[in-house]
Amino acid sequence: MLSGIALAVKSIAPDVRVYGVEPTKASDAKRSKEAGDGAWTGQSVHVNGPPKTCADGLRTTIRENNWPIIRDMVDSIFDVSEKEILDAMELIVSRMKLAIEPSAATGLALVLKKSFKDLGHRRVAIVLCGGNADYGAVFDSLRAKYC
């Protein structure tokens, strides 16, 4: 999704900054971007299985077709902690009443960080997509606490 958004945004407005966000435990694209890899080296292959993160939609690996777009069109990739992801998800669900998955909450998690605020952006757009959260577990937890 990041490569598609970057391609669309940069083709319309090349000066708009495009950022990616990943869980710290699954930050393969961030590491590759920071390493300045000219060609995809397969760094996102998870040797010990998929990383353990609540943002299961971001446990995936980057493929060679997406990497050149991410490398060339995404300005930077940041990472956020599991707590930051879940706090952002709770904020979105409770305040906006949107059923999103943890992966979608990473954008807000980043924007809420002081280090991002210090970048001084005046206008920020966040893509909220995906509703594949385990809401059954949420309600089971609530039932165990209150029933």
Can you characterise this structure?
- This protein has 147 residues and is mainly α.
- The mean pLDDT is 88.
- The chain is globular.
- The protein has a two-stranded parallel sheet with strand order 1-2.
- It has helices spanning 2-12, 28-35, 67-73, 82-96, 102-112, 114-117, 135-146, and strands at residues 19-23, 76-80.
- The protein is 46% helix and 7% strand.
- The chain has one domain: Rossmann fold.
- Helix 1 (2-12) packs across helix 3 (67-73) and helix 4 (82-96) crosses helix 5.
Secondary-structure blueprint:
Blueprint (H helix, E strand, L loop, with lengths): L1 H11 L6 E5 L4 H8 L31 H7 L2 E5 L1 H15 L5 H11 L1 H4 L17 H12 L1
Parallel strand pairs: 1-2
Helix pairs in contact: 1-3, 4-5
State the major sheet: 2 strands, parallel
The name CATH uses for the topology is Rossmann fold
| Gyration radius over CA | 16 Å
Low-confidence stretches: none
Name given to the CATH architecture: 3-Layer(aba) Sandwich
Tally the helices.
Answer: 7
Strand % is 5-15%
How many separate domains make up the residues? 1
Helix content: 40-55%
> Mean pLDDT, rounded to whole units?
88
Concise overview:
The protein contains seven helices and two strands, in the order αβααβαααα. It is mainly alpha-helical and about 150 residues long.
Supply database-style keywords.
147 residues; mainly alpha; two-stranded parallel ribbon; 46% helix
